[in-house]
């Protein structure tokens, strides 16, 4: 953001009494001055900023209801300790949670807690669950961005709605979750994208930069390669959630077995081997199908028999490999015809 724009943002925030906007604008100026090696000025700004109380504006003051339709508000129930995640991901998310819990200590030393996270990886492997679990651990509201309420058909309409979204998010400590972030944060150098999309991405990045640290922004993408290059540096944590290993899948299945009313007669690692390379979401759906059938049988059939039956049926399913192969074949045929 240009220095003149930052100064204007600071003046407006100060005049309106919006401490959250004031803090985010001054933080951006501190970063800008440090980037220019103006460390004395940056330190003075930081000390002045630390004297400002970090209190979100009240919803009545911010007139935030205008942006409420841009998010889906849900109660966070997922817990971090119940997730099977790669160890580095668990450690870094735990660090983020601790920094948020002890934010005032960090601010007293001129630091801010990290609050921007990018999660990437194939679908069904815990990105949404991680975002929800962070909200649960912080005991804050969980907002999922509604793209259907954001994207407008008229010039500038999407940016206006984005502004309403971020104004609403600033009013309360929360986790702001962007699922399928690549749909709105696409690479601006893509020759197929319109000028309007490029303006939206630029505005989105500016708004993310200005969010206060009590708004934890978590973006998830299945296609990290589509994201604009400037998106990556906006996020302090960039975490990969790959397809689970067989060991991770077995650990997940063991937790599911613990919820069943009787012994399934099979070890988790054996079932993991039979299910093959699948996501956590697919494994959960398989386990829930077994339970449904057991419930409907009114205990006339054992879980062991139902499990083996479902394993046989599982082998006949259409997997992602077949879908991808079919798509590849169609693409090859099309290229030959052209």
From TrEMBL:
Biological source species: Sphingomonas lycopersici
Keywords of this entry: ATP-binding, Nucleotide-binding
CDD domains for the chain: RecA-like_protease (cd19481)
GO molecular function: ATP binding; ATP hydrolysis activity
Pfam families the UniProt entry points to: AAA
Entry similarity comment: Belongs to the AAA ATPase family.
InterPro entries, per database record: 26S_Proteasome_ATPase (IPR050221), AAA+_ATPase (IPR003593), ATPase_AAA_core (IPR003959), ATPase_AAA_CS (IPR003960), P-loop_NTPase (IPR027417)
Domain (AAA+ ATPase): residue spans on this chain: 113-245
Organism lineage: Bacteria, Pseudomonadati, Pseudomonadota, Alphaproteobacteria, Sphingomonadales
Name by which UniProt lists this protein: ATP-binding protein
